[in-house]
Design a protein that fits this description.
single chain; 212 residues; alpha+beta; 2 domains; 5-stranded antiparallel β-sheet; 10 strands; 42% helix; 25% strand; globular
């Protein structure tokens, strides 16, 4: 296990470095337009809304930081990679409003077991008995109430990446369940592995908020 964890960390660190190297080669006006972010040409810094908070991506320092009221705080490697990949991958398309399941997303079928383990099952276990807590947590994170299941909320993981979290309580005959839905344009903004990461980070944020 330590060997696998070390490989995973090393993989994210490499992706982080490669992400910055690629971003420095991009035309900032294209990134701003496609990802709906801001750019400070003097500081060479992008400002990104992620999970309803403001993050700065410093191309000079190679650093991603959350702009907290008490001062900047490191985003961490995995969140940093996700933010970088959003900036690099985004090709702007109007959101359609048509929500699809993970299984309907093109080219991600191989990721479904990981998606279920990291995003759906924790969501289901955390909110199956308290669906109202899902809505309260979503609103506290800047999300919106959605019209699915016994309770649902839509979080804007990024400006153009809405993700909807749904739970059903179940009863004596039908077990509880959960689902996570995406706008059908999702692959215009994140590649498959990062869709899993974004959805799971949303689940963890909802769980953390529910626990207070």
């Amino acid at each position: 296990m330590p060997y696998l964890e070390s490989n995973l960390i090393n993989g994210y660190m490499e992706a982080f470095s490669m992400g910055f190297a690629a971003l420095r080669l991009r035309e900032p006006t294209d990134v701003v337009r496609n990802a709906e972010v801001e750019y400070d040409a003097t500081a060479q810094t992008y400002a990104v809304r992620y999970m309803n908070e403001r993050y700065h991506v410093d191309c000079l320092a190679g650093h991603v930081a959350r702009m907290a009221p008490e001062g900047p705080a490191s985003a961490g490697i995995t969140a940093g990679v996700l933010i970088l990949h959003y900036l690099l991958h985004a090709v702007k398309r109007p959101l359609s409003g048509r929500m699809i399941s993970f299984r309907e997303v093109r080219g991600v079928s191989g990721y479904f077991p990981t998606f279920r383990k990291r995003a759906i099952l924790p969501l289901q276990e955390s909110f199956k008995d308290t669906p109202d807590a899902l809505i309260k947590s979503g609103l506290a994170l800047g999300g919106e109430i959605a019209g699915y299941g016994d309770a649902s909320t839509t979080l804007h993981i990024f400006p153009l990446v809405p993700v909807t979290y749904v739970v059903w309580k179940g009863d004596e005959e039908i077990p509880s369940s959960a689902a996570i839905l995406f706008d059908e344009t999702i692959t215009s903004y994140l590649p498959g592995e990062d869709i899993v990461l974004a959805a799971s980070f949303g689940t963890y944020a909802l769980m953390k908020r529910a626990k207070g």
